[in-house]
Amino acid sequence: MKQGLQGGASILASRGNSLQKAAREDARPTRFTLSFLAVLVLFLAVGSKAETTNTLSNADIQGRQLAQQLCDARLTENSFQTGVLKIKRAKASETNFPIRCQGIVTPTNWTTVYILNYPTNGDVLANTSGTTVLEVNHAQNQPNQYEFNDGACMGYEMKGSKTYLPFGSSDFWIADLGLEFLHWPAQKILPKTTALKRGREYTLLESTNPTPPTNGYSRVLSWIDKESGGILAAEAYDAKGKLLKEFEPKSFKKVNGQWELQEMEIRNVQTGSRTRLQFDLKN
């Protein structure tokens, strides 16, 4: 593993610390949910080289501008957070895994590190090595770089369709933790589906993958809070265009006078599986 494992906290916590504006006690999201919820960090320049703004509609131009703004929001300081990943599969009991998240900032880039420790409780999906580590390396105007270590694979670089694999046994894919959908060339602002989303003013962003892998996403809808820029909710569709996953932050807590993301959930509507990430927020 690179030196990034030795510092800071994850984007999960750090976007709440460094990037979020002051928030009310309603459904206001933190900047972390852009990561993720990597935040979640990614760029459109590569996909738009062959296409000028003259060929795009206003909705397309505005969509790319919004996605670019989300990508430009980077960590400003090292940070650290711990929590619990709670996985509930259909017709099965819930399994809990401790997780540690770090964010490391350098002059040229920033890295988010997710360290998942599996319990020794006989879960057949648990990794026998006991630890899974994922590094997501971000650099401006560059695609994300993913380095994965599950005990069997040391420092394995993941690209393309390989990022559509679960982190541990959770419903979070590696691509989810890097917000890969913001890399796609097609970004568009859609008309609002409701006046408010979770009581908040929002912008509806559609991200479309022109060549989705059979095991990946073809389309992602993101409800972006107008004031904070955080994700109020998101839906991901499979390669056939069917709804596959739903994501939303669940609760927030005020820490040192600032609202922090306390819990978020991602659901696989096709399998009935659900994963909740709860952070250990300290007063």
Describe the protein's architecture and organization:
With 283 residues, the protein is mostly beta strands. It has a single domain, classed as Lipoprotein localisation LolA/LolB/LppX (outer membrane lipoprotein receptor (LolB), chain A, Clam), CATH 2.50.20. The protein has four helices and 13 strands. A 13-stranded antiparallel sheet has the order 6-5-4-3-2-1-13-12-11-10-9-8-7. A hairpin with a 5-residue loop joins strand 1 (79-88) and strand 2. The longest helix has 15 residues, at 58-72.
Features:
13-stranded antiparallel beta sheet; 4 helices; single chain; 283 residues
Number of helices: 4
| Gyration radius, in Å | 18 Å
- CATH architecture call: Clam
**Number of DSSP E strands:** 13
Instruction: Please give the alpha-carbon distance between the first and last residues.
Output: 32 Å
Structural class of the helices, strands and pairings? Answer: mainly beta
CATH C-level category: Mainly Beta
Relevant CATH superfamily: Lipoprotein localisation LolA/LolB/LppX
Q: Biggest β-sheet, characterized?
A: 13 strands, antiparallel
Question: How many independent structural domains?
Answer: 1
Compact overview of the structure:
With 283 residues, the protein is mainly β. It is built from four helices and 13 strands. Strand 9 and strand 10 (231-238) form a beta hairpin.
Map the helices and strands.
Blueprint: H1 11-18, H2 45-48, H3 58-72, E1 79-88, E2 94-105, E3 109-117, E4 131-139, E5 145-149, E6 156-158, H4 174-177, E7 186-190, E8 202-208, E9 217-225, E10 231-238, E11 243-255, E12 258-268, E13 273-279
